[in-house]
């Protein structure tokens, strides 16, 4: 297994010690992992390419790498973000930049905090692909005694579940940082799930996907874990840090920060009301005060929890 990294000094350190000290200090990587700073070496003979850079940086890299892939390489996106500007899901970015058809583009999404996985604690996930055989191939490749992947044909639902949960985790982090309690957290998780489901259904996803690992599962993990970068980022804002201060204090990617704007734009494009996402955008991108935003969210017009019995929900 070959791991590509940007910085030659980190690549050399990984090969010399078997440890990625900048991202996973203290974790011994399997002997089978070799690192390289040369993307051509990593792509050469790659049957399966796992893509895990931050979502806003994926397109330029993939464009640069376009000539490197074999025509049969299967792509697995771990990226839980939506591209700013185009509002494209990562599977769409991968398809556009590699030329791969739907049978070669998969998404792996679920409650998968990296630190717990490298500690080999049990986790489950979903491999989504339009082609069931490809999904099964990736499922087999990553199934271990401590990692249990399920297949799913709903790529849009799985991907959107992963991207929207980051935005909701930011919101939960804010209310946790403000000391607003567990009722507020439960309300945001539940209505956040409704928000993700509404948008997903409008985009052609199966609503039941959001009750699964890539929906509810990932919301629970991300909104309740101190390991979550999105939750931690929101928490800092809730404690009173400015957005710039929170960015400085965050060394890894909190995808929801940029993606909140893209998710909000998707809501506008598909005519879906996303009030929690709008609240996160107001705090992070429009300079609004968290206390005012929470007040505004709570004082919205009262609504039924659901309209009718066909799963169409009111805005929350
Ligand atoms: N860490 C997790 O627990 C976890 C779990 C599931 C999914 N993900 C998803 O995986 C993706 C990556 O997250 P992460 O945790 O690895 O983030 P990270 O911040 O730890 O690492 C991001 C990586 O992208 C690289 N990168 C940053 N800017 C770059 C650029 N301009 N060009 C090339 N490379 C660049 C960095 O060098 C780094 O290796 C995100 O979409 C995240 O949502 C993360
Ligand atoms: O640390 P976060 O907030 O990016 O979340 C990591 C994973 O997506 C959890 O499944």
UniProtKB/TrEMBL annotation:
Q: Where does substrate bind?
A: 80, 229-230
Domain spans labelled Glycerol-3-phosphate dehydrogenase NAD-dependent N-terminal: 2-134
**This protein's GO CC annotations:** cytosol
Question: What Gene3D superfamilies does the annotation carry?
Answer: N-(1-d-carboxylethyl)-l-norvaline Dehydrogenase, domain 2 (1.10.1040.10), NAD(P)-binding Rossmann-like Domain (3.40.50.720)
**Biological process annotations from GO:** carbohydrate metabolic process; glycerol-3-phosphate biosynthetic process; glycerol-3-phosphate catabolic process; glycerophospholipid metabolic process; phospholipid biosynthetic process
Tell me the protein family, please.
Answer: Belongs to the NAD-dependent glycerol-3-phosphate dehydrogenase family.
Question: What function does this protein fulfil?
Answer: Catalyzes the reduction of the glycolytic intermediate dihydroxyacetone phosphate (DHAP) to sn-glycerol 3-phosphate (G3P), the key precursor for phospholipid synthesis.
The entry's protein name is Glycerol-3-phosphate dehydrogenase [NAD(P)+]
Name of the gene this protein is made from: gpsA
């Amino acid at each position: 297994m070959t791991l590509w990294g940007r910085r030659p000094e980190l690549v050399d350190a990984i090969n010399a010690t078997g440890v990625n000290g900048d991202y996973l200090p203290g974790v011994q990587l399997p002997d089978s992992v070799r690192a390289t700073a040369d993307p051509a070496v990593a792509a050469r003979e790659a049957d399966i390419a796992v893509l895990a850079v931050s979502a806003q940086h994926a397109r330029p890299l993939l464009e640069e790498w376009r000539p490197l892939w074999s025509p049969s390489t299967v792509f697995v996106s771990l990226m839980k973000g939506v591209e700013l500007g185009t509002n494209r899901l990562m599977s769409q970015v991968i398809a556009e930049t590699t030329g791969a058809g739907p049978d070669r583009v998969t998404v792996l999404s679920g409650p998968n905090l990296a630190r717990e996985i490298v500690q080999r604690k049990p986790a489950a996930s979903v491999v989504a692909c339009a082609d069931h055989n490809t999904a099964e191939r990736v499922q087999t490749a990553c199934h271990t005694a401590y990692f249990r992947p399920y297949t799913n044909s709903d790529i849009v639902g799985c991907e959107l579940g992963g991207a929207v949960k980051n935005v909701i985790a930011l919101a939960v982090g804010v209310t946790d940082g403000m000391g607003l309690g567990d009722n507020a957290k439960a309300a945001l998780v539940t209505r956040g799930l409704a928000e993700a489901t509404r948008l997903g259904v409008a985009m052609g996803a199966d609503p039941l996907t959001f009750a699964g690992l890539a929906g509810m599962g990932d919301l629970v993990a991300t909104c309740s874990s101190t390991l979550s970068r999105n939750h931690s980022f929101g928490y800092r804002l809730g404690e009173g840090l400015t957005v710039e201060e929170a960015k400085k204090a965050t060394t890894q990617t909190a995808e929801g920060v940029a993606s909140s704007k893209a998710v909000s734009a998707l809501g506008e494009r598909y005519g879906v009301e996303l009030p929690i996402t709008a609240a996160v955008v107001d705090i992070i991108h429009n300079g609004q005060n968290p206390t005012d935003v929470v007040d505004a969210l709570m004082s919205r017009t009262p609504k039924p929890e659901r309209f009718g019995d066909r799963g169409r929900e009111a805005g929350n």
